[in-house]
Amino acid sequence: MNMNRLHGIVLFCFLCLIMVRQSAFAFEITDALGRQIEFDNSPARVAVAGRGLLMVADALYLFPEAAERIIAIEKITQGWGDFLGVVDPQFGEKIIFPVNVGAEQILSARPDVVFLKSYMETNLGRPLERLGVKVVYLDFETPDQYERDILTIGKILGNEPRTREIIQYYKDMERRVSSRVSDLEYRRRPRVLLLYYSNRDGKIAFNVPPVGWMQTILVERAGGNALWKDMKGTKGWIKVGFEQIAAWDPEQIYITAYFSDPDEIVRELIVDQKWQYLDAVRNEQIHAFPGDFFSWDQPDPRWILGLTWLATRMHPDIFHDVDIMREARNFFMFLYRLNDTEFDRYIRPRLIGGLGEQ
User: Fold this and answer.
1) How far is the C-alpha of 91 from the C-alpha of 356, rounded, in Å?
2) Where in the chain are the domains?
3) Reduced to 3 states, what is the DSSP secondary structure of residue 14?
4) Which of 74, 173, 315, 342 is deepest in the core (most CB within 10 A)?
């Protein structure tokens, strides 16, 4: 056989082998905006940025691969400490982008993919894509979106067995609550008010969430009647005055805060003469929403703990067998791979909402 022809055949076979190997690792995902995105292989360099990034980052770290794959992340300004430094010993070596980082600075980190919340498409996603950066959008705003977005992350990181474990964990936890409260008569569902306390520029305000937000969904799924469901507003917290709070006169009040101590806020409200006229305060049914590094009421992976805790508070007779401290310990062990010693060292000292005493 002609040597040149033989060399050509060998080269052709070699190229075919490369193409077969590449196609074997290629895959496609559909992100939260419904866009089909192709990958030649699982990305090795991952960046996380934009508003709401803490929910995305905490979800990524449910997968053990995240520690080595995440190479850059925007600074997280919410919370009471460095949670990612606890679950990732190499976190100090990451590139930390400044708040409101721009597309060109993200590009300088040479990411294979950037994860953004879907509402960051216009401000940050499109500029990144114009620079040739691959962007995947996630929602992580409601319990129903969690399964879809976890499936997306698991496929991108190449760990679908872990994906199934995570999804099953959430389904089991949700099922335990829903199976006990789904048939509750309306009169057995307490009239609940969840308030977000803010103190921006020294101005104290109380706010309720839109009906489609995680906080409202948690109250309803835990067996409560969310009094603010008829309030108009879908894009952000809705400010309410004390007159409206008094008109609702809830049986139970839950206070959440992301930059203040909710336990301290509750203590102040209990002694406030104006608030003492409320049924919930008179009956000692005003509670600080629990948390650790981050509050459990928001669309962070911790929402499942928030749902469980709410159910035990609203219906202690139905959930008398549920130990929320044990649930928290199991949560961090199974989802973030923290052992008992690490939980007692890093998580337990930061528990708020009355949990620190347990």
Assistant:
1) 27
2) 25-169, 188-357
3) helix
4) 74
Close Cβ partners of 346 (under 8 Å, ≥ 6 residues apart): 86, 338
For residue 44, which amino acid is it?
A: A
What does the pLDDT look like over 109-127, one tens digit per residue? 999 999 999 999 999 999 9
Angle at 198 between CA 123 and CA 142, to 5 degrees: 55
235: amino acid identity, one letter:
K
CATH code 3.40.50.2020 for 188-357 = no
- The model's pTM: 0.90
Backbone angles phi, psi at 97, to 5 degrees: -75, 150
Q: Which two tokens stand for residue 262?
A: 């909710």
- Does 3.40.50.1980 match the CATH number of domain 25-169? yes
Task: Tell me whether the CATH fold assigned to 25-169 matches the one assigned to 188-357.
Answer: yes
**Residue 301 and residue 327 in contact, taking contact as beta carbons nearer than 8 Å:** no
Sign of CA dihedral 149, 323, 347, 99: positive
